Amino acid sequence: MTNFSGSLSPSRVFRDVNVLSPHFVPEILPFREQQINEIKGVVSSALDNKKPRNLFIYGKTGSGKTVSVKRVMELFNSETPQASMQYINCRIYNSRYRILQKALKNFVPELEKSGFGLTFLYEKMIEIAGKGHQLILILDEIDMIKDLDELIYTLTRANDEIKTGGVSIVGISNKLSFKDVLDPRSKSSLYETEMIFPPYTSEQLREILKQRATSGLQKDAIDQSAINLTAAITAQENGDARYALKLLFKAGEMADQTGRNKITDEEVELARKRVDIDLASETIATLPENHQLVLYAISNISLNGSRYARLEIEEEGFLFSGEVYEEYERVCKRSHKRARSVRWYHEYLSDLEMLGLITTKMSSKGVRGHTTLIKLGHDAKDILAIVGKNTGL
């Protein structure tokens, strides 16, 4: 049998790569003490067997929302067996049934198997909470739940039937407007507290990176200027701490691969493009098909040139929304898909912009009346390759 242990040479740069993971939860979260205390304040009533208010937490990607809630969850779950917080990733568990199944598995192990109806799950939840248990469901990316109205209705109805315990929600979302799509009755039943996490500043990102580098990298394995550059690039882009950590990790990998024992500005600059396209690829892979087809249309025109270029759009690289929609229709026809209406198309543009894949702006009055202008946020060839691979185009 082949022995692989000799193939694993020790890293010159990394001490513990887990510390640089965006999923790592440090004991101390710099610049989020106030938010953690506010979350604790909302959920602490569950420790006295009182149902907490529902809590909704908003903020851009990488602003510390998830990691702050997970830190509170670690502390909370060590306090009492009569109350528990459970983390659920709604990109994976994106329906009422799957969320209830996931939430109750710890209490009813046989729920690992499929075949139990929604009524059975509902009755089990009432039975568990009815014994005086306060169950707090952390729904990360809550806006990804397909039947959110139905979930809220189910939880509200359950709470009406439960006398001594209860079920509460901590919802996490990048979209401030996600509740706008809810039925008015669902909205009125939420009785929630809201929090907004601001993006990190360059100075804050620098301190976060220093903290992680101290634990995750070998001693003297990074120049201070490389930390400063990583923080400055991230602040300029979006203030996303996860982006900063990925950039630091990728720069460390590049230093390791070239036999260097220190991360410098050079590795950070080289890592930047690779991280940008890796993140774009991860984001695009989770998008519904029509979003990807619109993105493909934008990339195709960006690469091959706009037919309206001679109309002199104010800024280079921007495309007319109408031309992109026409290209989207052609792409749909070529791939035997049904193009959605212009109203849906504008929804897709809004989602793509929120994810940082495109930027949009209104044209000045002189350009064909007021129209939306669109610009791709990444290299068109890279995006075409990613979407082409995902969709078979």
Structure overview:
- There is one protein chain.
- With 393 residues, this protein is α/β, with parallel strands linked by helices.
- It has three domains: 32-197, 3-Layer(aba) Sandwich (Rossmann fold); 201-283, Helicase, Ruva Protein, domain 3, CATH 1.10.8.60; 287-391, Winged helix-like DNA-binding domain superfamily/Winged helix DNA-binding domain (Arc Repressor Mutant, subunit A), CATH 1.10.10.
- Helix content is 48%, strand content 12%.
- It has 14 helices and eight strands.
- The chain has helices spanning 33-43, 65-77, 96-104, 118-130, 148-161, 184-190, 202-216, 224-237, 241-257, 265-285, 289-304, 321-334, 342-354, 380-391, and strands at residues 54-59, 83-89, 134-140, 166-173, 192-197, 319-320, 358-362, 372-376.
- The strands form two sheets. It has a five-stranded parallel β-sheet, sandwiched between helices. Strands 6-8-7 form a three-stranded antiparallel β-sheet.
- Helix 5 links the parallel strand 3 and strand 4 (166-173).
- Helix 8 packs parallel to helix 10 and helix 11 packs antiparallel against helix 14 (380-391).
- It is globular, with a radius of gyration of 24 Å.
- The protein starts with 32 loop residues before the first helix and ends with a helix.
- The mean pLDDT is 89.
Summarize the structure in short:
The chain is an alpha/beta fold and 393 residues long. Helix content is 48%, strand content 12%. The radius of gyration is 24 Å and the shape is globular.
Q: Number of DSSP helices?
A: 14
Extended strand count = 8
Task: State the strand order across the main sheet.
Answer: 2-3-4-1-5
Strand content is: 5-15%
Distance between the termini: 43 Å
Query: Any idea of the CATH topology of the largest domain?
Result: Rossmann fold
The CATH architecture term of the largest domain is 3-Layer(aba) Sandwich
- Any idea what the radius of gyration is? 24 Å
The rough form would be described as globular
Number of domains: 3
**Helix/sheet category:** alpha/beta
Q: Which sheet architecture does the biggest sheet show?
A: 5 strands, parallel
Approximate helicity band: 40-55%
Spans of at least 5 consecutive residues with low confidence: none
